[in-house]
Amino acid sequence: MPKDHIVHAFDMELSNLEKLIVEMGGRVEMQLDKAINGLLNYDVETAKEVIADDKIIDRLELEVATKATEIFATRQPMADDLRSIVAALKISSNLERMGDYAKNISKRTITLSQIPLVSITGKSVRRMGDLVSHMMRDVLDAYVARDADKALDVIVQDHEVDQLHTSLFREILTYMMEDARNITACTHLLFIAKNVERIGDHTTNIGEQVYYIKTGNIPEEERDTADKATSVIVEKSD
Amino acid sequence: MPKDHIVHAFDMELSNLEKLIVEMGGRVEMQLDKAINGLLNYDVETAKEVIADDKIIDRLELEVATKATEIFATRQPMADDLRSIVAALKISSNLERMGDYAKNISKRTITLSQIPLVSITGKSVRRMGDLVSHMMRDVLDAYVARDADKALDVIVQDHEVDQLHTSLFREILTYMMEDARNITACTHLLFIAKNVERIGDHTTNIGEQVYYIKTGNIPEEERDTADKATSVIVEKSD
Fold this sequence. Notes:
The structure is a homodimer.
Chain A: H1 2-40, H2 44-74, H3 79-112, H4 122-145, H5 148-178, H6 183-215
Helix pairs in contact in A: 1-2, 1-3, 1-4, 2-3, 3-6, 4-5, 4-6, 5-6
């Protein structure tokens, strides 16, 4: 009976840690969504909310680290349990960074609200944001279900985000060349697009951790190939 | 005697984990140095080496995670020991990201080697790189010595990196406005400068972890304030 009790309490602790990750993930997803809406509507109030609410995500990361450390200290987690706790630490670090990227989008939104901007890129940013939100929902589902296949599928989805990012990068460079008055605004847009792309990368990292929890291995597939923005050259046509 | 033996073996494991972190840190420092040298000399061979060697850093991160997980599973680390192991996991994640940023600098170096580039920004990039290398050496020293004050000092040093980044950002925007033919090259330079700035941020994160190992707390000081690049507006003067 006392042993059962201990096992039960341990399960509760693991389940609480998982709930914390899911809460954190849900909040980060909301932050991304608000950051993109704020950007597309030049909505400074929403942008300010995103910036302020990033603190909540930072606190949740600390809470995950504290809870995980307590479990290490008081239980002797083995095998699957041990892997889930180590993965929870890694996942929360990724989510914290994703929150930072959403905050960065909102900081730049405030800057963009003060300068005229070409509007045509809005649709591509929205599309990237929607794809990444979709990946985030899938990876959280995969995490809760411990579904390694679904986790791998998230990694594959990131290729499309990378491709969109590369073409958006090229598109924005073209606007800058067309009219030098676009340069400041477009530069911030370039970094915003990069932020969304990075959120996709971190979602992929979480997918890898879910795969690791389930299988004990990190997926072998070569990463980081579909984003060709680092090699884009656009020549000015005069 | 057998108990002594166990304690001794545990100390050895912790010490090996620490050595692995120091090795990883040294390699990342070397990667940053090579990436910056490669950039300033348009040295494509060096850039390719940096890109290829990033795999070594990725492997080291996995090795840290495996070793840490083994220690959790076979020992019951408490208090300071527990904190060092959790911190080792976080530090290795940061180092792995820093390696990715160095790789990204080198990818963009290969692109830049194909297009004409204004040379005047080289000095500022070098200066940022030197500052960040200095921070990295300090934070690894602080880690080995478990020196919380030195760790805090690294966090303070990052302000200067942020300020340099903001002024470099502004400088590069000006070049883009002066001549649209500079736009592609300057955009890649903007991202390179941002990469160096981000390596500084991650070095700061490591400083926070060193502080945490020593004190059990994360330093309270407000972060992320000196980099004002997100709010830079440069108007084209015609």
